[in-house]
Design a protein that fits this description.
By secondary structure, this protein is mainly alpha-helical. It has helices spanning about 5-10, 20, 30-50, 75-105, 115-135, 145-170; strands spanning about 1-5, 20-25.
Length: about 170
């Protein structure tokens, strides 16, 4: 959002370039869009970083053999597919933004699309790669509460982003 600086007009200097007479101040709605775009992939990146130092548990086998054992096996293929799809969607979002900026020769300020795209690629792609690596080494990353909560909160923030974008497009700003 551009705000015209009225002090330059009062001074009567007509030779002031328009770029100096304009100051950029983000309005509340674009600021909320900025925050939501950055927070969602940052949460996933944080959960991936928290999973790095974990190691496989080396507990000795129990001498007592259980007859019935409850076992939950995560669907690793589906999880990795969705994480990779999310990473590619951030990649396509960033590439689309860059192509738009190059063709229009204008980089829209305060959008955070470029920050979000880089964070999303690193977060989702990194979590997929790290999760696959940890699975091979015996660590069940997909059952970590931090990963589950981060993905759920990222989903909530992405839903809020869709709602905010709908409000922004409806208001025409």
């Amino acid at each position: 959002m551009c705000v015209y600086d009225s002090e330059l007009e009062v001074a009567g200097d007509d030779n002031v370039p328009l770029s100096l007479a304009m100051t950029f101040e983000p309005a509340p709605l674009p600021l909320a869009l900025f925050a939501v775009r950055v927070i969602a992939p940052a949460l996933v990146l944080l959960s991936a970083l928290l999973a790095i130092p974990t190691k496989a548990s080396s507990s000795p086998p129990s001498p007592i053999t259980s007859v019935v054992v409850k076992s939950q096996v995560p669907r690793r293929g589906l999880i990795l597919s969705f994480l990779t799809l999310a990473s590619f969607s951030y990649l396509s979002d960033g590439l689309t933004f860059v192509v738009y900026a190059v063709l229009k020769k204008y980089w829209p300020p305060f959008t955070a699309i470029e920050i979000s795209a880089v964070l999303g690629i690193i977060a989702y792609g990194g979590l997929a790669a790290l999760g696959a690596y940890k699975d091979v080494n015996g660590v069940n990353v997909w059952s970590f509460a931090s990963v589950k909560y981060a993905i759920f909160l990222a989903l909530l923030f992405d839903t809020a982003l869709v709602v905010l974008l709908a409000v922004t497009f409806k208001s025409g700003s």
